[in-house]
Amino acid sequence: MTKNLRVKSSEYIDETNRVSFKFNGKTYHGFKGDTLASALLANDVHLVGRSFKYHRPRGIMTSGSEEPNAIVQINPNSNITEPNVRATEVEIYEGLEASSQNCWPSVEFDIGGINNFLSPFFPAGFYYKTFMWPSSFWEKYEFFIRHSAGLGKSPTTNDPDIYDHRNVHYDVLVVGAGISGILAAKNAAKNNFKTLLVDEKNEIGGSTIFENNEFNKIDSKTPSEWLKKEIEELKNIKNLEIKTRTSVAAYHQYNYILARENLTDHLEVKDKKNKIRQRLLKIRAKKVILATGALERPLIFNNNDRPGIMLSSAIRKYSEFYGVACGNKNVFFTNNDSAYESALSLYDKGINVEAIIDIREQSESKIVKKVKEAGIKIYWSHSIVDTAGYKRLNSVTIMKLSNDGTSVTGSKIPISCDCLGVAGGWTPSVHLYTQSGSKLKFDDEKKIFLPNQNTSDQISVGSCDGDFKLNEILINLNKKIKEMLNIKQTDFDSIKVEIDQENSKRNIWLLPSDKPLGKTKPFVDYQNDATAKDIKLALREGFRSIEHVKRYTTTGMGTDQGKLGNMHALGIIADTAGLKMGELGTTTFRPPYTPLTFGTIVGRNVGKFFDTFRRTPMNDWHLENKAKFENVGQWKRAWYYPINEETMHQAVQRESKAARESAGILDASTLGKIDIQGSDASEFLNRVYTNAWSKLAIGKCRYGLMLNEDGMVYDDGVTTRLDENHYIMTTTTGGAANVLGKLEDYLQTEWPELDVYLTSVTDHYATASLCGPNSKKVLKKIIPNLDLSDENFPHMSFKKANIGNIQCRIMRISFTGEHSYEINVQASYGKDLWEKCMEAGKEYNITPYGTETMHLLRAEKGFIIVGQDTDGTMTPIDLQMDWIVSKKKYDFIGKRSLYRSDTMREDRKQLVGLLTDDPNIVLEEGAQIVSELNQSPVEMLGHVTSSYFSPNLNKSIALAVVRGGKDMMGKKLFVPMENKNINVTVANPVFYDEKNERLNA
Amino acid sequence: MFLINCPYCGERDQQEFKAGGEAHIERPKQPTELSDDEWAEYLFMRKNIKGVQFERWNHAHGCRKWFNMVRDTSNDEIKAIYKMGEKPPSQ
Ligand SMILES: [Zn+2]
Known about the structure:
Bound molecules: zinc ion
CATH architecture of chain B: 2-Layer Sandwich
Shape of chain B: globular
Distance between the termini of chain A: 96 Å
Strand content of chain A: 25-35%
Strand order of the largest sheet of chain B: 3-4-5-6
Low-confidence stretches of chain A: none
Largest sheet of chain A: 7 strands, mixed
Structural class of chain B: mainly beta
CATH class of the domain at 162-291 and 428-498 in chain A: Alpha Beta
Number of strands of chain A: 49
Largest sheet of chain B: 4 strands, antiparallel
Number of domains of chain B: 1
Radius of gyration of chain A: 38 Å
CATH superfamily of chain B: Folate-binding superfamily
CATH superfamily of the domain at 162-291 and 428-498 in chain A: FAD/NAD(P)-binding domain
Distance between the termini of chain B: 24 Å
Strand content of chain B: 35-45%
CATH topology of chain B: Folate-binding fold
Order of helices and strands of chain B: EEEHEEE
Mean pLDDT of chain A: 93
Number of strands of chain B: 6
Low-confidence stretches of chain B: none
Oligomer: heterodimer
Largest interface: A-B, 25 and 28 residues
């Protein structure tokens, strides 16, 4: 039953290269050069999908990226299937498999089609109105909706293809390679502008390349012949790069343009291997020339969506470019002359054209005369009032239009046909233009939106600027590129253009039917099944803004962004509300112009390249010793080191005990390190930390707390005075970059008079932290000649030393409460240092510990971690760290805010310790704290910020922030959990060695 | 994505920069002398203009210098760029 509708040979179709492909499980044949759409049409297949809401049968409507209906699933039976692909853009290759979307069990028999008969119950806003109540039913509704709707299937495994990003720079970017784009690019390049010409199609030339209207001539040649000669010349032009299959997705400000270059989708599977599939071009162009063309408009009439109803221009392209007739008995329905060109294109190839239905009273153009001479019946002042044929159009019914175009009269005339071409005029493609931030104006005569105010160095040329006639296009193009490129002449200054002058058009946004509107289905948005009826209903319900109507009716909300029907929607709204279209504005076109694959967007940033990891110089040792890692900012930090089958809990308990009982070692290389030099370094520290720095002796260390100007704790760390004008500051691991940024900001903008220089040296040093009562003995073995006595090297002091030939800085500082040393060496010696410590510590059973044990040990001591126990709303007073806030200093960052009425409130959340009444219960971090159990609702007093089982105290400990907690020592509170309430008591946050005796042990 | 003309490096893509809020808000020299209201004015109050706005920007992934920008927030046109400490252009 498959018919062959290939009616003409075409230079763009290689008939010697037969390609077989599968659609909905059935094998078909086409030729190299075909799209899936043209190959299906050549096999007389129109029915390719079902609509989203009513599941109405739908056919191929267009020949390009604006296609609303022919949306297919590629490789439907594979786990790397791709949904939402337009059949009009898929180039077929041997072995291609595709299937319809939105239909179950098959496109021929679709369960959801029942919605079509229920459609009176699916008015505008149906989903909003129906499924909002009762809200508890939403889950059930959602199941129903997702089951019967949904646009395609997602792939289920990782995308195996390679995608790429590339930054490119051009003097001139030309978007769209129709006649305007080609001439613009050619002349730009010839005048030494580095030029890129892109087009989404596989061939350049636009619609002019198959323009054979005998009444249009350029230099006595048909436009098609003339343009082919121009294209031939492009090959020899330097400075010009042409990229086909490249579609501009987004046009951002400052001429920043994203384009997707499709490299292998059209190739056979074996040729796709190991090649980049798609590349995202990030283009900066000094000048942009938009030559994006125009899209033909459909006409809005009753049942205008049946398979077999297509755009007239698409029928012409299938006929002239692909050599395919879309039907055997063709009818055209038009409001302008362009349908006559399509009709003649078929007629010339011996294909039946039954009739042309024209809503105009008449037209005197040469092409209309020629159609009359050919004997094709023309019905002037007529309109289609209905169509028939469920899965394929089989007839249309027409009636005479009243003079004002609002009703139909006379008797119904049925015309049998299997294909209907509709021609409703042209809409300039201004999507990219508006994306760039430029503004449109409405041309009331042409009923189109046109570029008006450019925001960057750009021009629009050709039909996207409203020039539809060849002579207008070429004259205006010539003028505009001369002005933009500042050139005196072009190579098409003296061409002669002849055209068929007639240009009459009659615009009726919604064509009348003999039935009342409520009984008809005039589709405005095919993909989302929005009809003119829905738009009018929305207006009756009080919606006025175009953006609201759009969302309520879902008009223009599909993957095609309503490229075909948006103008009609606006027109119908304007007519109904009695407004002028220009006053109504237009909806916003957002990127991407056509859908992009996720692969294109992420490019190479997948897998291990998704984010940057930072690893310490000791990383290999951690790996060899089976450490588990955690992410801290971008760092991979050793988390704990399980031995044999230890769980995390077991490992951490063991590490924690070892660090307090003998010796532990921690890789602290990730701490931020900022080298501070300059004659005002001390003054600078005075201003950025809450405590005083001027009197810190050389060789001494001090803990500092840094606030934001709002008084809230921002960062903390130990800073060491290396010399009179030289300090090394440490910051939290995660805060390093931000702290440096903040300090630089103050230095450059508030205190430029200070002589201070900051250098980030985080990556320059590796740091091993030795801790525990035996740490001194371990260090002594490594550096025997260093005097480690408390007199010579007390807590909070610093020494330079050598380990062999390696210079190191040693700080005797402690984050665990134990006697400990932080040894810093040049990063490249980090692993060597670590191994020396491990070797020396062997006899003390030195135990490497990770971040989890570090957190536990410091929690035993009640030391905060900025970002865990604080959240940007905690002042030092809230943290019970009043001791670190200098009362004497006149000013420091955040000081004034500590005296604001709000920060001085007594009932702020304050840091306290919590002990569970049952010492074996470990609280969950983040758990809420209340003071009453039998009250509902009950005030949340605060939450748990840190919680561990302490092996050294043999009980559960926690830190928490509690409203007014400072004055609650000993008070009983509750932590309500899902299945139980936990009784807790407020305690001193320092759980272990309150007198700090172990620091000198 | 703006194209920003760093006064020290020249034209660079916006992704190299960090925006730093309204410009020409000087940190008070004697914060302790200020009332809560006066301090709040400095700390919290920002104009957030629709139209021509004076802003601070930092070439964070470049020279790390702070500078000022005059930008029309309604269409993102960058009207002027000048160094810290320089007088803002009059209009
Ligand atoms: Zn710079």
